[in-house]
From TrEMBL:
PROSITE patterns documented for this protein: PROKAR_LIPOPROTEIN
Basic and acidic residues compositional bias, start-end: 26-35
The protein's name in its UniProt record: Nucleoside-binding protein
Organism, as annotated: Maledivibacter halophilus
Alphabetized InterPro entries for the sequence: ABC-Purine-Binding (IPR052910), Peripla_BP_I (IPR028082), PnrA-like (IPR003760)
UniProt cross-references to Pfam families, sorted A to Z: Bmp
PANTHER family reported in the protein's UniProt record: ABC TRANSPORTER SUBSTRATE-BINDING PROTEIN
Keyword DNA-binding recorded: no
Length: 380
């Protein structure tokens, strides 16, 4: 009897201990965090994984200090303004490989894709037809589909103004121009720059040297050196790095940059530069896509829109340059001056734009001839 009673007592004690142990384990379990759930699920039912995503495709590295850097600044501005998630790929070649890059971005959830170089155009057109639910925007081209836009800025207006500075500065009357490819975008810029030069200095010539690359700092610099050796005392460019400006500085010459304000990269040579301001356009287009109001279009904004600008004119520029630029800029803004308004002659001295007339946008977008004052040939 004693043993049975003892056994019962031991069972009761053991049972109580087990129950107490379970109670302690439950009491030590952390409480649920209601704020964490609220963060993951927003009022509209979307989760962080469903955040609106935008893709950017770059032809060069974001550290180029030029073209790609300017687009990447626009991407960062977009993130700050709208709070969207962005993804990007650098140094994507202008060939079929870009198709895979776009499809990878779509697989990651991109609803809008910006392809930021001319050579991507045909591939963007093809992929846009395969993915009608995605919005595609191609920079500097001319093709559109129902879900593909093209966009660019009238950088030629700012180039004309920079040409005024160069034309007033040169003493040798020879200005070197380092240029990437002989496509209409580049040819148009060379022509606008030259027209600006000759508006203040009819005796000056603009010598062109092609590099056949957008991004190659060494090659760009060597092209500038060759122009300097030939007598140029001012260097301009349609390239993505400050290489040409640095060559000018090393030679004791002066320079007009491109894409961004690169004063710090060649402080003794840099006078000014036509520059880009992509951010507001990116915000406008992504917001339209988010709101369901996006439509395919062709955009070509200018100085008036603020998508193109002239970098601050530095102490390296000639006396009176700021005043002259301000005067001409006002004429462009109020419509009194059209950069490609006649009379304009080509290299052979033939009138190609009559007085009182001007090139249309389609003519500018397909331009394949140089104005009088340019030394060099358009390479096919």
């Amino acid at each position: 009897m004693f043993k049975r009673t003892l056994s019962i007592l031991l069972v009761l004690v053991l049972s109580f201990s087990l129950l107490a142990g379970c109670g302690n384990e439950a009491s030590e379990k952390p409480e649920e965090n209601p704020k964490a759930e609220a963060t993951a699920n927003t009022d509209d039912g979307n989760t962080d994984d469903e955040k609106f995503k935008v893709g950017f495709i770059y032809v060069g590295p974001i550290g180029d200090g030029g073209w790609t850097y300017s687009h990447n600044e626009g991407r960062l501005y977009l993130e700050e303004e709208l709070g969207v998630e962005t993804i990007y790929r650098e140094s994507v070649p202008e060939d079929q490989k870009v198709e895979k890059v776009m499809k990878d971005m779509i697989d990651q959830g991109a609803k809008v894709i910006f392809a930021t170089s001319f050579g991507y155009m045909d591939y963007v057109e093809k992929v846009s037809k395969e993915f009608p639910e995605v919005k595609f925007l191609h920079c500097s081209g001319y093709k559109t589909t129902e879900n593909m836009s093209n966009y660019f800025g009238r950088i030629y207006e700012a180039r004309y103004l920079s040409g005024i500075v160069a034309g007033m500065k040169t003493e040798s009357n020879k200005i070197g121009y380092v240029a990437a490819y002989s496509i209409p975008e580049v040819v148009r810029g060379i022509n606008a720059f030259t027209l600006g030069v000759q508006s203040v200095n009819p005796d000056a010539k603009v010598a062109v040297r092609w590099t056949h690359t957008w991004y190659d700092p060494a090659k760009e610099k060597e092209a500038a050196k060759a122009l300097l050796d030939e007598g140029a005392d001012v260097i301009a460019q349609h390239q993505d790095t400050a290489g040409p400006q640095q060559a000018a500085e090393e030679a004791g010459a002066f320079a007009v940059g491109y894409n961004t304000n690169s004063y710090e990269q060649a402080p003794k040579a840099f006078m000014t530069a036509p520059i880009w301001n992509w951010g507001p356009y990116y915000v406008e287009q992504v917001k339209a896509a988010m709101d369901g109001n996006w439509e395919s279009h062709s955009y070509w904004g200018g100085l008036k829109d603020g998508i193109v600008k002239l970098a601050p004119i530095t102490e390296n520029a000639p006396e009176g340059a700021q005043e002259k630029v301000d005067e001409v800029k006002e004429k462009i803004l109020n419509g009194e001056l059209n950069v490609f308004g006649g009379p304009i002659k080509n290299q052979d001295g033939e009138i190609v734009v009559k007085e009182g007339e001007a090139l249309s946008d389609s003519e500018m977008l397909s331009i394949e001839w140089f104005v009088e004052g340019v030394e060099g040939k358009i390479e096919k």
